[in-house]
Specification:
The structure holds 2 protein chains of 2 kinds. Helices cover 35% and strands 11% of the residues of chain A. Chain A is an alpha/beta fold. Chain A folds into 2 domains: 322 residues, Alkaline Phosphatase, subunit A, CATH 3.40.720; 66 residues. A 7-stranded mixed sheet of chain A has the order 3-4-1-7-8-2-9, with helices on both faces. In chain A, strands 5-6 form a two-stranded antiparallel sheet. In chain A, a hairpin with a 2-residue loop joins strand 5 and strand 6. The longest helix of chain A is centred in the middle third of the chain and has 31 residues. Chain B is α+β, with helices and mostly antiparallel strands. Among the domains of chain B are: 102 residues, no CATH class; 234 residues, no CATH class. In chain B, strands 2, 4, 7, 10 and 13 form a 5-stranded antiparallel sheet that branches. Chain B has a 3-stranded antiparallel sheet with strand order 9-8-11, with no helix packed on it. Chain B is flat, with a radius of gyration of 34 Å. In chain B, 45% of the residues are buried. Classes of the chains: A alpha/beta, B alpha+beta.
Chain lengths: 418, 868
Amino acid sequence: MTTRRTFLRAAGASIALPMLASLGAARATPTPAKRLVCIGAFLGFHGPDFFPATTGRDIELPRILAPLARHRSRWTVFSGLDHRAPHGHHNWRNFLTGPSVAGASFDQLVAGQVGDRTRLASLQVTCGNASDDGQISFTPEALALPLIGRPTVLFETLFIPAATRARMRGHLASGGSVLDQVRHDAKRLEHQAGAEDAAVLDEFFTAVRGVEQDLQKRQAWLDRPAPVVDIAAPTFDPVAPALSLECESMMYDLIALALRTDTTRVVSFLLPGEGQVFTLDGEPMMTSYHGLSHHGYDPARMDGYARIGVEHTRRLATFLDALATTNDASGQPLLDTTVVLFGSGMGDAHRHANDKLPILVAGGGFDHGGHVAIPRSGPDDDAPRLGDLFLTLGRRLGVDLPHFAGATRSLDDRLRWA
Amino acid sequence: MGLMRTVLAALVVVAAGAAQDDERAYGFLDEHCLGCHSGRSPEGALSLERLEVEFGDDAAAGVWARLADRVERLEMPPPGEGRGPSADERHAFVTWIRDQLVARDPVGGAGPRRLARREYEATISDLFGMSYSLPESFPHDHSPHGFDNVASDLRASFPLVREVLEQATAIADRLFPPQRADVALESRTLVVAPAELEQPARLDDDLGRVRLTLFQNLVAAACAWPSRFDAPTSGRYRVTVEASAFMTAQAHVREAGTTRRLGLFARPSDDATITTLDGLRPLAELLVEGTDPQQLSADVVLYAGETVAFAWVDSPVYSVPGRHDLHRDVLVKRLEESPEFLAAWTAIGYEDRGTDGNIPVNDYYREFMALAESLPTGTRLQQRVLDMARREVLREAQGVRVLNVMRVEFTRFGPALDIHGVVIEGPLERIDDVDVLAAKRAAAALIGDRTDLDNDATLVAVVERFLPRAFRRPLEAATRDEYLALGRRAMEAGGRLEDGLHAVVRTALTSPRFLFRGLSGRQLDEHDLAARLSYFLTGGPPDDTLRSLAERGTLRPALGEQARRLLASPQSARFIDAFTAGWLGTERLHHIMPDGRLFDVERRDIDAMADEARAFFSTVLADDLPAITLIDPDFTFMNEGLARRVYGVGGVSGDDLQRVEVPRGGRIGGVLGMAAVMMATANGVDTQPVLRGVWVLDAVLGDRPGAPPEDVPALGSDTSGAVDVREQLARHRAATRCASCHTRIDPLGHVLENFDPVGRWRTHYPQLVTLDDGTTRVEPGAAVVARVTLADGTEIADVCDLKRYLVEHDERFVRALTGKLLTFATGRTMTHGDERVIADLVERVSVRDGGLRELIGEAVLSEVFATR
């Protein structure tokens, strides 16, 4: 069995980047960050192995952060942040939305402002088949966006095969005539209708206009030359839950590729966790990932749980490598203009507690380093929230949010621009 | 005073002689209300003195409506305070108010309704005769009114219409897929070594083979599969397995023989949610004979994305519902055979290990054997322990542990079935997916008989046949021509008939004519009536019978009869599902996670709760029992889990729901105290009397309290005891602004406090005590006090008393239920005009002692039903 996941690494060098190169002159410094990648691990991390014992820049890296040592000047880890959200596994999905899922998630707020600069306004990714709970990004209407879990599907979404492209173009073009007839139908109904109908039809007309503009936008993007990637699509999707770490590596590679080709600037990535039993270094683990996360303070289980955390950060480090070694159009490393948010909506998986979330920010041109601890006096105290960090990240991305789900203060003083 | 009287007389438009009625009504106010509801600080912060009597104003109309309700229910003037009005006076006053309200708020008043999610799915399935479900990305309908199909909640926003177009395109693509060049079939051969077979329950990795032991319904426990394979295309594949029987010399092992049946199942490779074997598609069985490795092959059909799972299907140890659990026999035999095994088992069986079922099997076994060696054997004590052990083994709760122990035993000593390697070759031949096949059939049915028809004639035929069904009414000539033109253009551009049909289907499924119903105006025409009846009672579009009745213009008088026909059809299950989900709130059950420390309730029990609600409602309907049976029946439905873990009733066994007779007027039976309802009105941790009270008031008594004012803090949740909740609420009621609603709500919640958050009966609140070692224990806390005084002054001791009260006032319940049925049917909240029609209708049916089916039959004939 050849190692199918090496295909992308080998291919990385042979990508032509017409999109990035055509971005035009670099803006005057300081260049705000242009891209956002939000990564959330469904089963969280073992806290004692994630949070450094001390604060400040000079910290000893705990086990789960150790794989990120080579990037330590490029990230900051936060403790004490959360959304003041209720506990429970189902509430994981508020990771990017605040105390509840009442509207758009952070990534979608950003995509709403920067999304029209790329063919895909945003991208939602996971490994394999995300179950019902697998939700991370939400539209302003609080609808969960579907996640792509197969590398081949993500690949085809990014680099549309010629046949699909022709078909899409056809559908987009004929979509106009569909909407013409639909509008016509509605107009005829309007003639017969009373006042109660008129309001409903009015709303429908407005919606149809919106869909029309959406089609035109998509068509315009489709007509632009596609990024030339001289690589073949993956031939195998490691979508079995037991292979999700392997899938994670492939997905990181493809996300890096999506950013390098400027196909999208906003990505959210849900790292799934179910009942799969991982095999690490040739040894099957003692029990399932989910079983380990409910460790019951058993040392062997806590150890196993932390080991999987290390597997996640090892892959994150490789992803950061890819971003740090490629330059964007203005000659800056991609990582310096990409905000990477890494963490979980789960603070303590053993108890299904959603407070004190593990949060790490990398890249994005911040003056990084070390551990920022937010002192907490109680679960409902007045300390800054995760939403405040989102405000700071948003500003760096040129997206000025006045507030985020009850958070109004920002963490600008804790995470300064470089 | 005088001025007000003048205003009243001037503004209210009533029939001749009405001025006299006004005078009398105002006299009633004067005499019975203004004493308290006037002055600087009127009672309940409600001054009737300055009441704007213009019924055209929503706020004032609301006050009048409440006045009528409360006077009618004897809640006002407060019982026991001086001489109240006579029954005649009350009636005249209430009737007068209602007349004014009905005049300003007549029957009907909603706009057209968009198809709700569930209706959309049923419509597509029925239109094309293929199963269809919407993807998650399709907007979910919000249902603040309890039901998911209320017109005003079904907006046609940009994201919705965008998704409608996407889905219309996807459906058209499924029916008429693009022409693809034939790709040569590329068959590959994949050799899978044992180490590459995933087996979550694997115990020993040094065997060099995969050892299958127990056959359980759990996929993870019973199966092994190659996780690095999934069928690249749907097709026929050849699976070759090298396998052998494994056994040692022990007696029970020898009994198993050396013939083994190896089952092959199709398993979606990326699936993490199918946990039981019932969810897998059986592919083939291979017979393994003897202990020598042998190669066996089977040709199987795999759909794209599937892998092959292997299981030893006739293992002597299995645990499959409906089949005898042989593991008990084997274990007892083993216990008798090996004293060490017995002693260790017993020691562990009695050790308190909590409820964690995730104890790693290998660790467990090591611990088990260590204990075995340390225990004395061959004593009299042992004989006693033997008996105890047998009992222990037979206890269901020990099942998982027994199976884990047996898995270790079987892995070491047999019997087992070994797999030494797997080869998968294929696809040998391409085979259509179930979905693709269904779509091909649907497309063929849509196109119909093409004998003697060229492409254009076929297009004409399809347009004329399909559009009336898609739009649920006869086709206007202009629309027909436009769709034909559209289809012809696409056919010309693409060169195939299918391109034309694709365009027609895609456009029709995006059109407001498809997406909305009730477009014929305020008074529904025959076609809209057909759709209304059909979506009401079957959740889907009208069938041929309804359509032809509507076309002949003879449906209206036949609505009652048609309703009975639809209720008897299998599609009525969709009505029962959706109506009970909205009325009883059972759709919330999926979102509630009962606190495992407090409640021993399993997910399947919660599913059984929803099933109970459906089966119960469905029986009342099928047997045409009086509607009040829903409150006070002499039967309900339970399965063993529900009976044992929730209702505390014996004599029910098995997973299947069965009818259980209960005494009338008791705790069990009816929607009050029904586990599904009690759970849906709590949060899985503690009860919230206000929420339950609101539910009873709305769903059972037809009185929907308004939303609380925004500046009121919510009550904190309470786990420590009822005393606080009661006190908090008592204080709440003392605040006059809150009192008018909470005197109606709270008693109805408190009287149900005997039902805990999962519907079990309780006399004391639980108290979670944390012990020194960090573990928790549940102890009885404060006593539950269920006795309450209703807003009309009636003393109610408990839920049984409340049922009696409702049976006595059954008209109120039946009206409430009819209102809910008609809200569900018409997609709007009931107006004052509607309420009056309902009151008359209920009276007619109750005079005849009619049942629930008759009530529905009568309701669909009413003006309420026929009005948008």
